[in-house]
Amino acid sequence: MINTTFFYIFIAISLILVWGYFHGRKKNNQIAHAAINGLIEITKPVDQKITNIGGVVGYHVELDFHTENIFSDIKATITLMARHSLLYWPISKLIRKFDRFFIRVNLSEQVCNTEAHIIEKHFYKDKRDGKINSALFKKSYQKENTNFFIFSKDKSDEQFLEQLVEKIKKEDRLKEVSIYPREKKVEILIVPALENNQALLKPIFKMLS
């Protein structure tokens, strides 16, 4: 009787884990496709390459543009939490905390005078403390219920970043925008979602162009 009970418990747990795998895989694929397609629709590249990394937890994206476009190229990586593994999901949630869509934009011309950053307050405290140029001035900035730190050395750059935040929607999913004029490079980090990725990304790319 005891062996039979354990057998049924084992079968039940196995079925739950299998269900969790397919459900989590589907959710991750939906989030990844929504975010990547949103980026492509906004930027309209002439060529694109999407490479799967790590099964259902990530993709690399490479976008190329015409030579006259302000975007020289875009390289992005989306990494998702382990929704497909019910056993590892709590650990993934604890360690990574959120899905990440990291976008590196190489520009044909610079958009700021000096290095500048806007970083969500909690993300800055968790990951970026001590990694920002000490010559930059730090300013707190709030939109709705989301708090940011703005780092800049030039008043016009500070105003540029403030305008950027004011234009975007779903600002609670913006983690970072870092601008490096010398390298003509912009790095963006957002939390991807099933919808409204364009509402978050489109104003950023519009201001960059």
Write the layout of secondary structure elements.
Elements: H1 2-43, E1 47-52, E2 58-64, E3 71-79, H2 89-96, E4 100-107, E5 116-120, H3 121-128, E6 137-143, E7 146-152, H4 155-167, E8 174-180, E9 185-190, H5 197-208
Helix pairs in contact: 1-5
Structural account:
- Helix 1 runs parallel beside helix 5 (197-208).
- It is elongated, with a radius of gyration of 20 Å.
- The protein is of the alpha+beta class.
- The protein has a nine-stranded antiparallel β-sheet.
- It has one domain (2-208).
- The N and C termini lie far apart (70 Å).
- The longest helix has 42 residues, at 2-43.
- It has helices at 2-43, 89-96, 121-128, 155-167, 197-208, and strands at 47-52, 58-64, 71-79, 100-107, 116-120, 137-143, 146-152, 174-180, 185-190.
- The mean pLDDT is 85.
- Helices cover 40% and strands 30% of the residues.
- A hairpin with a 2-residue loop joins strand 6 and strand 7.
- It contains five helices and nine strands, in the order H-E-E-E-H-E-E-H-E-E-H-E-E-H.
